[in-house]
Specification:
Chain C: It comes from Paracoccus homiensis. The structure holds 3 protein chains of 3 kinds. By secondary structure, chain A is of the alpha+beta class. Chain A is built from 2 helices and 6 strands. In chain C, 25% of the residues lie in helices and 33% in strands. Chain C is elongated. The chains are: A alpha+beta, B alpha+beta, C alpha+beta.
Chain lengths: 99, 996, 178
């Protein structure tokens, strides 16, 4: 069971309070009707499936209820960082990448 | 006093005899004994038969790594357990134990014929023997394998014990209460840190318990130990014995199983048998010590053959000598101390056979002074005896050549193949290992967790070194968490340092192919099997493991992995680190299902949600069904009624007069704020802007993929407030989805969502007399059809309770749903039942609800839809706000595959022969086609309809909407059923009854 | 000879069900928190898990835009009226959830131990006077720490039978002394 830092509660808490919510930084297109079928398909279904650092969303569903973003290594299951939903994607430093 | 018990030795209580039975015979042990030590005290070594060859076996260890002495234990009625390790199970009065895997009896076992035929049962014999002919598999091979497989008998009764679980947060968790662990715990505790020390044994001390002659800080080791434990207690350290760390998980979570009652004569009432601890530690210190390995030679499994360290433990901890005339074979110094202790306690050791050419002079002198014959540079090539060892065959080895053998008689053989650090928990963390060429063993290298490893667990030997290392580990742990303390040191006299080597199978002058030299005792894997696996092409140690089953027994290769590796590496012509170890996985030792289940059995097996009306339903004989986490009243049978009769009566009563239904489980979400209507427009397919307050509408929710996710009736309470209902199972999902859009896509909208599912009790009244039942109870609202038409909502008072009243229908009849604050739910139910007496009001359950809605063709999301059904597929195209620019899922509705006319579409089905279809049954268009037939769809809902006097069904069928009136075929085992495609709206198609 | 160092008392902890009282969920954007607090005459703490008390009205911050309000019965209508009045200028949501939860009080020397049977949080470090929304044996609960050994647990009504059943099993377990 992982420990996850909720950026809204500013506490590191047990995983059972949280729910995974898919890949992060995939914004819903402002005008879906303007998209081609292929573009819409990519929005719906195409994900990075990263081996290693992965930008993803979690929800503190049994706590403050907030969705937030996380950078987690899918190989080691280690969280590099978590950040609020409106914050930009943090740059992965070479050091973190090495980890 | 038992024959092999030495008075005045051991930590057992000579004044407290404990009576138990083994295979029906009564024995007496002492308080503090294990079953194994008590049987050994009575001269019993033979405790079981092996798994494959049914070879006689006795205990080889004195701890949880035991592969041989697995017994059935019965702690009273219903408390039978197979495969209990006799070396772990403590004696308790009246304990009933039995040997396993034998017939008719332990000393004469028919199954031992397998042993004579061992050539047939070599590695991979399953794969080779049971291949052909294919037709033999079901009738011959599988029954044979099933009959022969398995170890021990499964219990036949439900477990009467209870189990518990607990979370624990600690600064430092120390696993292993031996010298290193105690030193580490005390060092850490002196910093003021919260420290927890656990050990799987009944008492702390580890190897110290077997080494009373060592002196620490001027005291005997046992006195020193007692003092350390009281210091630990005084420092506030939590000490947990009989507690096994079974797994080490991410971020320093360690699972512990604490055994609470198995050792007690009379467990206190309600005491749990075991407790699972989920520990989160800031620092973990692994001080688990090392496991002794056997040596691999012909006949190394005969009862009486035992690890030297185990013999030393039986002697010093239990006061039991394992034989009158022992022999020793070793490649490690430690076995000498076992031999010395045995002689010093009055026993006899005939010979120490050391496979090494050189031995430490002080050890050689000490052996000589005890009249022990010392044979260095020798090997053991055979053992004699049947149910107990009687001799060994010893040969000199010169320059790799094995000389001629001679027999030496003995009644016990102490073996030591060196020690391997207990790295299981460390391996759970994916910590990497390094091969240490000096000690010829794997040691921990790269750590992935915040842990320290101390003592013999990282290859150290001798108490002085181990104690100092424990202190270092404790200091390191507290430094990591920002604390400090002053390091202490201990002075050790009479220490027992030692070194040794790792071995492949011992050299022999006989045919190696015929040697019964066991590597994995429990799975009966021999050195020959491992070499065969390599010869047959297995190159990876993981393949060798699976082909031979080496290390796959319940002891998880604690004794066999390194020996197996040494042999495999030799066969492959590689160095051990190039071959590598197989992965250790949790749990460390076999763990009961009860420990994992904890409180979750019986009524609390899983969480069950109950509505405010649930007590009434229970009192009135409802049969319940689970719906998501809820239990819901399924139907209300009257005496003598079966389900079919009860449902038919409930349907009839509702359509004829009035039925009452507990709809409290429906999800409810309050959508509030200035942008509520905009939010609703974006989420649901329907248009909401023009829906006036006081009216409601059927709402349809899609995913972005265009498939139906949920539905429900939504009331507009005021311009800025919607009362949304969801399906029972969808409540949490829908709220989560709404929150997702609101928080991440449209944070600009001023809308807030509150789950009110449980704020309201919801009771549905349906039937032509529904208004008559309700009207007398309502204040502040005109219920007439003109003033309060179908699809209206209002706040009013019902039975004196504040209510949100909906006029809607899921049955096709005049219907109302009354929401009152949940604590008043039963009050309202009773008031409606009272008011409905005159109309024979009928409580109905979810089955009748399903039938009535199916008669009207109303879908159930998740039953008639499966996550691939679009609104058009379900015939709900009318619910789409075509003028809306966007809503969730809209773009997908124009994708090419979504507009394909051959999609599976929801239709009604009426069978020609009047039989009832099975839900899930597959549908074909042409019953005469070749198999495998092309499936055209499947039945989603099927019921006996009282109103129509025949069964009805709904189905999804490819291009179904264009096939009205066509005949389709449902092939069933009894024959093919013909059915006609119809509309799903079977009953009152014009909806006249709704307008009543 | 053996060392089991559990120290359990005979009466480990007490479970009481609290009587019904009004309970409201307040939602407002963080930037409007102070304005709304002034309009409603409430002290809305800004840190999640923090509480405030004014005139017997207890407030708990549950999320960046979410507060739980426990208000005496007579104060409820006043608060609803003040909310309606403030709504146009300061959009927010005030939703009654008085019947959604039922509150248990857990007290006694083993109250923390009992909670540790189902709650994965380190509740020993939860400051007295704070509260947390978390999980107890797969049910979402709000735990209010009122004293060293005194907690309130808000549970959704339908989950209560399960939570109670687990707590009773724990109570029996602790009463056994092991």
């Amino acid at each position: 069971m992982l420990l996850i830092h909720c950026p809204y509660c500013d506490e590191t808490l047990p995983e059972v309070e949280f729910a995974y919510a898919g890949e992060a930084h995939i914004a819903r297109p402002a005008d879906p009707s303007a998209l081609t079928d292929e573009e819409w398909r990519d929005y719906l279904f195409i994900r990075t499936n990263a081996r290693g650092p992965h930008y993803e969303r979690w929800r503190h569903v049994h706590g403050c209820g907030r969705f937030f973003n996380a950078l987690r290594d899918t190989v080691t299951d280690r969280f590099v960082t978590t950040y609020r939903i409106d914050e930009p994607r943090p740059v992965l430093t070479p050091l973190e990448a090495a980890e | 006093m038992s024959r092999y018990r030495i008075p005045g030795m051991g930590r057992v209580d000579p004044a407290a005899p404990v009576s138990f039975t083994f295979d029906g015979r009564r024995y007496t042990g002492l308080r503090g004994d294990t079953v194994a030590s008590a049987l050994l005290a009575n001269g019993v070594h033979l405790m079981g038969r092996s798994f494959k060859y049914h070879r006689p076996r006795g205990p080889i260890s004195a701890g949880s790594e035991e592969p041989n002495a697995l017994i059935g234990t019965s702690r009273g009625p219903g408390r039978f357990e197979p495969n209990t390790r006799a070396t772990v199970q403590e004696l308790r009065q009246g304990l009933v134990t039995e040997s396993q895997n034998k017939w008719p009896r332990l000393s004469f076992d028919i199954g031992a014929v397998n042993d004579r035929a061992y050539m047939l049962f070599s590695a991979g014999f399953y794969y080779k023997t049971f291949m052909w002919p294919r037709s033999f598999w079901d009738k011959v091979y599988e029954p044979f394998i099933r009959a022969a497989a398995g170890l021990g008998k499964s219990p036949t009764e439900a477990d009467p014990d209870t189990y518990a679980s607990r979370y624990l947060h600690t600064d430092v968790l120390v696993v292993g209460g031996g010298a290193a662990g105690i030193a580490a715990a005390l060092a850490a505790a002196q910093s003021g840190a919260k420290v927890t020390l656990v050990d799987e044994n009944p008492e702390m001390g580890g190897a110290l318990l077997s080494d009373p002659s060592v002196r620490i800080d001027g005291r005997g080791s046992w006195a020193w130990l007692a003092d350390q434990l009281s210091q630990l207690r005084a420092a506030g350290v939590t000490l947990m014995t009989r507690t096994t760390a079974i797994g080490y998980y991410h971020q320093n979570m360690v699972g512990l199983v604490e055994r609470l009652t198995d050792h007690l004569d009379q467990p206190p009432q309600d005491a749990p048998r075991e407790r699972m601890w989920r520990v989160r530690a800031r620092q973990v210190i692994l001080a688990q010590g090392a496991l002794e390995k056997p040596l691999v030679f012909d006949g190394n499994d005969r009862p009486g053959v035992m690890l030297a360290g185990a013999a030393q433990t039986y002697l010093n901890r239990y006061g039991v000598k394992v034989g009158d005339n022992a022999a020793v074979v070793t490649c490690h110094d430690s076995a000498y101390y076992a031999a010395f202790d045995l002689v010093d306690a009055g026993g006899r050791v005939a010979v120490i056979v050391d496979t090494r050419d050189q031995v430490r002079p002080d050890l050689a002198d000490a052996a000589r002074s005890r009249d022990i014959q010392l044979l260095t540079g020798h090997t053991v090539t055979a053992t004699g005896g049947r149910l107990r060892i009687s001799s060994i065959r010893v040969n000199p080895v010169r320059n790799g050549r094995v000389g001629s053998g001679r027999r030496i008689s003995c009644d016990a053989l102490l073996v030591s193949g060196g020690w391997t650090p207990s790295l299981h928990l460390f391996s759970h963390t994916k910590g990497s290992l390094t091969w240490d060429a000096d000690s010829q063993t794997f040691l921990p290298r790269h750590k992935t967790e915040a842990c320290q490893i101390a003592g013999a667990g990282r290859g150290l030997w001798g108490y002085a070194e181990v104690l100092a290392d424990g202190v270092t580990a404790g200091m390191a742990a507290i430094t990591e968490i920002g604390r400090s303390a002053v390091a202490t040191s201990a002075r050790v006299e009479g220490d027992r340092p030692g070194t040794g080597s790792s071995q492949k199978e011992l050299p022999t002058d006989r045919s190696a192919g015929k040697a019964r030299a066991f590597v994995d005792y429990q799975n009966d894997v021999t050195a020959k099997d491992i070499r065969l696996a390599v010869r047959e092409g297995m190159r990876s140690i993981e393949h060798v493991k699976r082909y031979t089953t080496n290390g796959m027994a319940t002891d998880q290769g604690k004794m066999s992995n390194i020996n197996g590796l040494m042999i495999a590496a030799d066969a492959l012509g590689k160095e051990p680190p190039q071959v590598g170890l197989t992965t250790f996985r949790p749990p460390y030792t076999p763990t009961s299902f009860g420990a994992f289940a904890g409180y979750h059995r019986g009524a609390t097996f899983e969480l069950t949600r109950k509505t405010p009306i649930d007590p009434w339903a229970e009192a009135h004989g409802a049969v319940f069904e689970p719906v998501s986490l809820w239990r819901r009243a399924w139907y209300f049978p009257r005496p003598g009624e079966d389900m079919h009769q009860a449902v038919a009566r409930e349907c009839r009563a509702t359509r004829a007069s009035v039925g009452i239904f507990d709809a409290s489980t429906l999800g409810k979400i309050e959508v509030a704020g200035p942008d509520a209507v905009e939010f609703m427009n974006r989420m649901y397919t329907n248009p909401w802007t023009k829906l006036p307050p006081g009216r409601c509408r059927y709402g349809l929710l899609l995913g972005e993929d265009g498939f139906i996710r949920d539905d429900g009736v939504i009331g507009r309470m005021s311009p800025d407030l919607f009362h949304v209902t969801t399906t029972t199972g969808g409540a949490a999902r829908v709220l989560n989805m709404m929150e997702d859009y609101l928080q991440t896509e449209w944070p600009d909208l001023n809308v807030w969502l509150t789950s009110t599912t449980e704020q309201w009790a919801t009771i549905a009244l349906n039937g032509p007399n529904a208004r008559k039942v309700l009207e007398p109870l309502v204040e502040g609202l005109d219920l007439s059809d003109a003033a309060f038409p179908h699809m209206s909502v209002a706040e009013c008072s019902v039975a004196g309770l504040p209510a949100r009243l909906f006029r809607l229908s899921f049955t096709g009849e005049l219907g109302f749903e009354i929401n009152v604050p949940a604590r008043h739910g039963l009050t309202l139910w009773n008031a409606l039942m009272e008011s409905g007496k005159a109309y024979d009001i009928c409580p109905y359950g979810t089955e009748t609800m399903h039938v009535l809605r199916a008669e009207k063709g109303y879908i159930i999301v998740g039953q008639d839809t499966d996550g691939t059904v679009t609104p058009q597929d379900a015939g709900l195209g009318w619910a789409i706000g075509k003028a809306k620019a966007d809503f969730v899922g809209k773009r997908s509705l124009s994708r090419p595959d979504i507009v394909d006319p051959n999609r599976k579409q929801l239709v009604g089905l009426l069978t020609e022969d009047g039989s009832r279809l099975e839900e899930g049954a597959q549908i074909v268009l042409d019953p005469n086609q070749d198999v495998p037939m092309k499936m055209a769809g499947h039945v989603t809902s099927s019921y006996a309809s009282d109103a129509l006097g025949r069964p009805i069904a709904m189905a999804v069928i490819t291009g179904g909407h264009g096939r009205m009136g066509e005949t389709v075929h449902i092939p069933m085992p009894q024959g093919t059923i013909r059915a006609q495609i119809t509309s799903t709206n079977f009953y009152d198609p014009d909806g006249e009854r709704l307008k009543a | 000879m053996t060392t089991h160092d559990h120290d359990f008392t005979a009466a480990p902890f007490l479970i009481e069900e609290r009587p019904w009282s009004p309970r409201l969920s307040l939602r407002v954007r963080p930037q409007h928190r102070e304005t709304l607090a002034r309009s409603l005459g409430l002290d809305l703490p800004s840190r999640i898990g923090h509480r405030s008390v004014t005139d017997k009205t207890e407030l708990l911050c549950l999320g960046p835009d979410e507060w739980l309000i426990l208000v005496p019965a007579q104060g409820r209508d006043d608060l609803m009226a003040a909310s309606a009045e403030a709504y146009a200028a300061t959009p927010h949501s005030l939703c009654e959830i008085s019947d959604r939860d039922i509150t248990l009080r857990l007290s006694g020397p083993q109250a923390l131990t009992a909670l540790a049977a189902g709650c994965p949080r380190d509740l020993g470090s939860l400051p007295i006077g704070n509260a947390a929304r978390t999980v107890f044996d797969s049910a979402t609960v709000i735990l209010w720490r009122d004293g060293q050994d005194s907690f309130r647990m808000d549970v959704w009504r339908s989950f209560l039978p399960h939570v109670r059943a687990i707590l009773h099993k724990v109570k029996a377990e602790l009463s056994s002394g092991l």
